[in-house]
Amino acid sequence: MTKTPVLYHCPQTRGVTTHWMNEELGAPCEISLVDIKKADHKKPDYLKLNPMGKIPTLVHEGVAVTEAAAICAYLADAFADKGLAPSLDDPKRGAYYRLMFFAPSCIEPAMLDKFSGTVRENPSSAGHGSVEDVLGAIDQALETGPYLLGEKFSAADVIFGSTLNFALMFGAFDKKPLYTEYVDRLLARPAAKRSHEKNEAYANDLGWE
Ligand SMILES: N[C@@H](CCC(=O)N[C@@H](CS)C(=O)NCC(=O)O)C(=O)O
Hints:
- Strands 2-1-3-4 form a 4-stranded mixed beta sheet.
- The radius of gyration is 17 Å and the shape is globular.
- The chain is 51% helix and 8% strand.
- The chain has 8 helices and 4 strands.
- The longest helix has 25 residues, at 92-116.
- The mean pLDDT is 96.
């Protein structure tokens, strides 16, 4: 690892997920605040890094990584000594990838369907199927615990847990104990608490109410 990675971040956005990941790793990234309320994320220099004009973005060794799940996966591998990703020869690597990418591919669109009241006429043609199928798969992923891969916390929990937390916070999914106990376990982690405190300070620094 030569250069310091820069995490372009804004409080109260999905950037909070990657900020928490950074804290889990001992905060190796420099944080560059992007004020979404001033539309900094739509300025030409930022759009060169993230053509979607979305938060978060990571830049490392001159390469931009976008998409919160990709950033978490990238950081877990870049700082592999921190043990947040199973090693390449660990059989758990498959479950790790599956659950990490299940969050943006399936949990997030199911959450948005619930918000918008969208009922898919043909769930077979939707990548996430139906909300019921997604909830069933979440139940199965959480039934062993305490973390997705069992006893060991991983970057997959950061993405999966953050996405589930958003869905619960915004009332998309029922707050059943299987979900709330898992999310509470994650939010009680020292790194998640530190991230929360720092994000409150960032919002203050940006002059947000
Ligand atoms: N698929 C992206 C989604 C990122 C995203 O939607 N970020 C929101 C904040 S939560 C954003 O930047 N919205 C600003 C906009 O689209 O103008 C990811 O997972 O990183």
